């Protein structure tokens, strides 16, 4: 058991846990058993059925309730005498400011997304409170310790970026199933059921007049004289037949590729008239249980459907959307918990895959890819939570020199399943924990302030409430307490080209970007540049001094094309916060960085020391590759 | 459940873990039967993990009454000034575990571990014993080995911030995934008795010091007829004496079993909850691997010490170095 010193450090500590999900439930339990008396816990999520296999403080009857609050009640049942303060809220809320963070001796993260992690990292740096950070995916996990000035901060190492795909791969030349999923989800589903005003590259090549009867008309709109049957057939023939046909006409594309096969309704559903399927479409009116699968008698989500079955699911789901969920059309966005949306996307992706000779996948697999579902088991979370508490106790005893970052591995490396490594020193050129200025190359005569805010300040720098100034002059600010005329002024600035702002930003200008909540200030040197490569530099600007690790294959690929990239990525933070299951990367163990060598901790034997090298890089699947 | 396909309810509940180990593994888990004896903190952690994972049944054995100390280390038992109203540890843990996952059958088997005969263990696929004496580790392990079917045997101990897991899968075959092929692998495990009989000098260099230290303490408790964990600072002199004798007999340098490490194990015998969580997690993963036949199983000892933070696997199965 813990020594006397440890016990008093534990008893006197006031700790903040961020996240009451997979790691959080285990962590709260282990903290309570270890003797912690004053625990605060923030989580904005509510409980879902798919949490119950590992978030053991929750039961079926708690589905829909606040994770933080239910976790508190569950732990108080075996430890009624301790104090647990729950906050059912977003850690990015302004209430959780630097002063709030300062009241704690240590912050313990059990988060699932990069955005919140970066935010907490900055608040910890600003408040001078040590942070113990963690993540798991499948059997892999890691715990890291971040103490200002002594170890690297969470952002000292570049983080892997979500994999993005070139527009043409998605629209014209898919070669992997994930390309078909992205097409089905972000283009077709969005086109048919989502916001009509959003840019959508689904029909980039459909401006040929030959087959479209009325060029000004949107092919995806249901025509007045058309019934559901005809409409569904027309959509099917258009996207799987006509569009492929017209892509084939561009011979250049297929010189070194296998040609796709256009698929028409008549090729697939020959023997049975579609009308036969209209059976109980009319009987079930409960939106939450609507299912094309069960209507068609397909039961096992692990089965891989044939092209014919996929086509039938496609038609059934499309019709169900139009007949039973008509009101939602125009406002839908893909949600992995929307069963019919998953059915539709699975079917559409499979039909497209069949067309391109790509192997088909089951609904279960397609859901995982489309929903970017993280692999999670209880055991890894339990191990990681134990390691967090061990590190937290060292931090509380001011024993920073013995703090370790620990990897939980699936396969032993040098006989170790749990591998401790000495933490890194702070990265002197980290824009977050050092004061190194950034450099932004941008066309100051063309880019608007809005572009800089969206593509740099919020997405890359991860600022929540940014404030941008040029010298002493404010150009832009976000906040609740702004006067109306200021808001209008900032709004109009957003639409202005950089060089035409009231305080012009041109080559050589230094702007200051800060987030008052995060107490983070960055200087950005502006360098004017005329031209940018559309494929390689889709933002139309390049930020230096801010490094991003090479992209990792991300099953989701939120950003798929130039035009909608900014809108999609801006909506990502909200999505991520909703559910702790969303991201593969951010919860994972990717911070093992490439290029640098980590020292294995506590190597007593000098000959052993020489022989040792450390985990250095991760491969595309997020696995730790240990170089020995 | 007997059907070949998972129910809709199971698919929904186990969605995230099926993505890790697949439907076949989940199906095998749901048909497996686990026996756990000794419900200290580490075993409780393990029970939580495998009930969540969705095993078929879990049988608990621990007739000890609930004491303040047991309560302090156990998150399954609601706080109660009357110490659980006279129920045994197994009974109270059973109630909570049932609640964790209604699809797992959790029950209690009363009686002393030593009273169970060979036939008793035939009902199970996996036997886990926590905080048991040297004699019962040997005897339960032997009983499992006498059966014609393979019963996987695990023993787990946590003292202070140190822990040990022992695994005996007897003869174990599994499919090992290589880069683009699957190869059949076969492992041959020794029994606990065989493993600890291997002369120390023939073990690989840089063997975890914890292995030797645990053997010294285990032997000390055995010769002194103590229950596991019934040691104190007053025993240190005799423990050191035993250490020296064993080192002499095995031609091992005494520095391989430092005084400070022995002192930790002898003086503070209570489990350190974060270490229990780590051990319960590793053990849970190993049992899941053994049942599902997926992944390289641990062979055959695992050690964790919170002081250096290393979780080490040692293969102590052959006397040839």
UniProtKB/TrEMBL annotation, chain A:
The name this protein goes by in its record: SUMO-activating enzyme subunit
Pathway: Protein modification; protein sumoylation
Organism, as annotated: Lactuca virosa
UniProt cross-references to PANTHER family, sorted A to Z: SUMO-ACTIVATING ENZYME SUBUNIT 2, UBIQUITIN-ACTIVATING ENZYME E1
Active site: 168 (glycyl thioester intermediate)
Keyword Cell inner membrane attributed: no
GO CC entries: cytoplasm; SUMO activating enzyme complex
Binding site for ATP: 19-24, 43, 51-54, 67, 112-117
Domain THIF-type NAD/FAD binding fold: 5-430
Entry keyword set: ATP-binding, Metal-binding, Nucleotide-binding, Nucleus, Transferase, Ubl conjugation pathway, Zinc
Assembly mode: Heterodimer.
Positions annotated to bind Zn(2+): 153, 156, 430, 433
Automatic annotation (TrEMBL), chain B:
Family from the record: Belongs to the ubiquitin-activating E1 family.
GO cellular component: cytoplasm; SUMO activating enzyme complex
Pathway(s) annotated for this protein in UniProt: Protein modification; protein sumoylation
Name of the molecule in the record: Ubiquitin-like 1-activating enzyme E1A
Subunit and interaction comment: Heterodimer of SAE1A or SAE1B and SAE2. The complex binds SUMO proteins via SAE2.
Gene3D superfamilies documented for this protein: NAD(P)-binding Rossmann-like Domain
Location within or outside the cell: Nucleus
UniProt GO MF annotations: SUMO activating enzyme activity
């Amino acid at each position: 058991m813990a020594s006397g010193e440890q016990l008093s450090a534990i008893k006197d500590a006031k700790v903040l846990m961020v996240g009451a999900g997979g790691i959080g439930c285990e962590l709260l339990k282990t903290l309570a058993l270890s003797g912690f008396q004053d625990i605060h816990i923030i989580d904005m999520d509510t409980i879902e059925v798919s949490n119950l296999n590992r978030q053991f403080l929750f039961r079926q009857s708690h589905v829909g309730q606040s994770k933080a609050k239910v976790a508190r009640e569950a732990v108080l049942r075996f430890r009624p005498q301790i104090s647990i303060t729950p906050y059912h809220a977003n850690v990015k809320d302004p209430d959780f400011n630097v002063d709030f963070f300062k009241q704690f001796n240590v912050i313990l993260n059990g988060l699932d997304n990069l955005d919140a992690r970066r935010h907490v990292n900055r608040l910890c740096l600003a408040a001078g409170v040590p942070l113990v950070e963690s993540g798991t995916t499948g059997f892999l996990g890691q715990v890291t310790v971040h103490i200002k000035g002594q170890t690297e901060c969470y952002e000292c190492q570049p983080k892997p970026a979500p994999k993005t795909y070139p527009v043409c791969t998605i629209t014209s030349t898919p070669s992997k199933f994930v390309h078909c999923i992205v097409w089905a989800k972000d283009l077709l589903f969005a086109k048919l059921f989502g916001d009509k005003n959003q840019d959508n590259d689904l029909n980039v090549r459909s401006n040929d007049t030959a087959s479209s009867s009325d060029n000004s008309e949107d092919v995806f709109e249901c025509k007045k004289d058309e019934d559901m049957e005809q409409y569904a057939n027309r959509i099917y023939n258009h996207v799987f037949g006509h569009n492929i046909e017209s892509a084939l006409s561009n011979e250049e594309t297929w010189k070194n590729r296998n040609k796709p096969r256009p698929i028409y309704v008549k090729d697939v559903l020959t023997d049975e008239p579609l009308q036969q399927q209209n059976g109980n479409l009319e009987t079930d009116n409960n939106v939450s249980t609507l299912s094309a699968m069960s209507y068609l008698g397909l039961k096992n989500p692990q089965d891989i459907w044939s092209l014919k079955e996929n086509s039938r699911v496609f038609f059934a789901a499309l019709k169900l959307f139009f007949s039973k969920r008509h009101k939602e059309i125009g406002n839908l966005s893909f949600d992995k918990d929307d069963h019919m949306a998953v059915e539709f996307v699975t079917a559409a992706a499979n039909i497209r895959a069949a067309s391109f000779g790509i192997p088909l996948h089951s609904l279960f697999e397609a859901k995982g890819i489309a929903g970017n579902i993280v692999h999670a088991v209880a055991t890894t979370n339990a191990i990681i939570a134990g390691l967090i508490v061990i590190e937290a106790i060292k931090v509380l005893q001011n024993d920073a020199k013995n703090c370790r970052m620990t990897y939980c591995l699936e396969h032993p490396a040098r006989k170790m399943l749990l591998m401790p490594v000495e933490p890194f020193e702070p990265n002197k050129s980290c824009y977050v924990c050092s004061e190194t200025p950034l450099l932004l190359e941008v066309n100051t005569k063309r880019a608007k302030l809005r572009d800089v805010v969206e593509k740099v300040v919020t997405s890359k720098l991860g600022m929540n409430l940014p404030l941008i100034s040029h010298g002493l002059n404010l150009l832009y600010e976000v906040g609740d307490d702004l006067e109306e005329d200021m808001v209008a002024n900032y709004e109009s600035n957003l639409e202005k080209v950089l060089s035409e702002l009231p305080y012009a930003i041109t080559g050589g200008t230094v702007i200051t970007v800060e987030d008052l909540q995060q107490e983070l200030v960055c200087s950005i040197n502006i360098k004017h540049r005329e031209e940018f490569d559309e494929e390689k530099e889709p933002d139309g600007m390049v930020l230096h001094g801010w490094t991003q690790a090479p992209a990792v294959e991300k099953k989701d690929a939120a950003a798929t094309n130039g035009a909608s990239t900014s809108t999609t990525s801006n909506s990502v933070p909200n999505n991520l916060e909703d559910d702790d299951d969303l991201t593969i990367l951010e919860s994972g163990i990717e911070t093992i960085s490439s290029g640098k060598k980590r020292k294995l901790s506590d190597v007593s034997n000098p000959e052993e020391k020489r022989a040792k090298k450390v985990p250095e890089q991760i491969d595309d699947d997020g696995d730790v590759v240990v170089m020995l | 459940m007997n059907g070949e396909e998972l129910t809709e309810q199971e698919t929904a509940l186990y969605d995230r873990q099926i993505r890790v180990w697949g439907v076949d593994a989940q199906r095998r888990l749901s048909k497996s039967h686990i026996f756990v004896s000794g419900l200290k903190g580490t075993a409780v952690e393990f029970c939580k993990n495998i009930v969540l994972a969705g095993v078929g049944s879990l049988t608990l054995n621990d007739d000890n009454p609930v004491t303040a100390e047991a309560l302090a280390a156990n998150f399954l038992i609601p706080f109660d000034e009357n110490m659980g109203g006279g129920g045994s540890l197994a009974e109270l843990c059973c109630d909570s575990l049932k609640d964790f996952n209604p699809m797992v059958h959790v029950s209690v088997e009363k009686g002393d571990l030593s009273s169970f005969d060979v036939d008793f263990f035939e009902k199970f696929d996996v036997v886990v014993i926590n905080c048991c004496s040297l004699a019962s580790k040997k005897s339960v392990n032997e009983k499992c080995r006498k059966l014609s079917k393979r019963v996987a045997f695990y023993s787990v101990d946590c003292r202070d911030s140190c822990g040990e897991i022992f695994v005996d899968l007897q003869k174990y075959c599994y499919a090992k995934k290589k880069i683009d092929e699957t190869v059949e692998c076969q492992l041959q495990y020794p029994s606990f008795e065989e493993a600890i009989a291997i002369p120390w000098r023939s073990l690989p260099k840089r063997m975890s010091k914890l292995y030797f230290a645990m053997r010294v303490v285990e032997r000390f408790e055995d010769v002194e007829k103590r229950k596991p964990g019934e040691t104190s600072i007053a025993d240190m002199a005799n423990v050191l004496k035993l250490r020296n004798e064993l080192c002499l007999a095995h031609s091992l340098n005494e520095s391989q079993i430092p005084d400070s490490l022995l002192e930790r194990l002898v003086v503070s015998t209570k489990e350190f909850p974060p270490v229990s969580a780590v051990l319960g997690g590793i053990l849970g993963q190993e049992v899941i691997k053994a049942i599902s036949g997926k992944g390289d199983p641990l062979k055959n000892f695992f050690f964790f010490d919170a002081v250096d933070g290393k979780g080490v696997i040692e293969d102590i199965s052959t006397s040839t170095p």
